[in-house]
Predict the 3D structure of the following.
Amino acid sequence: MTKQGSLKLLDTPEAKELLQSQIYARVAYIGVDGDPRVVPINFHWDGKDVVLGSHPDGPKVAAIRKNPSVALTIDENGFPPKVLTMRGRATITVEADVTKEYAAAMERYMGPEAGKAFVDQLRSQKMPMARIAITPTWVGLLDFQTRLPHALTGGYG
């Protein structure tokens, strides 16, 4: 079995399912005031990075520019839950328009027609968008059947 921490966990059926789901990611970062934050946000997985969209002047953009180390989770509410967690480094670029990843995410979350209409409405405002790309450096996967939290297997952590 692939060990926790391995990027190979991203290739498992459970991880692929969560990365293509309509579940919001919860992204954790350190705010500019030094306090931790967790925010729910839609995302797009491009096969290498988890990509988020945000207003370029938003608080999370300033905080992630200052400290690009982030963590995120995508997890189901049902029992037994499937939980995908990642730690990684974020890079931020600012694009003149809605990013292609944000557009793809909105179509996945809202459906093709509603997602496209929402993105078209955003594009009509001609506002730039920050593209936050999180490159995983550590991946964890729990399904509470074959993969359990370390503490439940007699370990600590």
Summary: Confidence is low (pLDDT under 50) at residues 151-157. The two ends are 19 Å apart (CA to CA). The helical segments are 13-19, 59-66, 100-110, 112-124. Strands lie at 25-30, 36-41, 44-45, 50-54, 69-75, 83-95, 129-142.
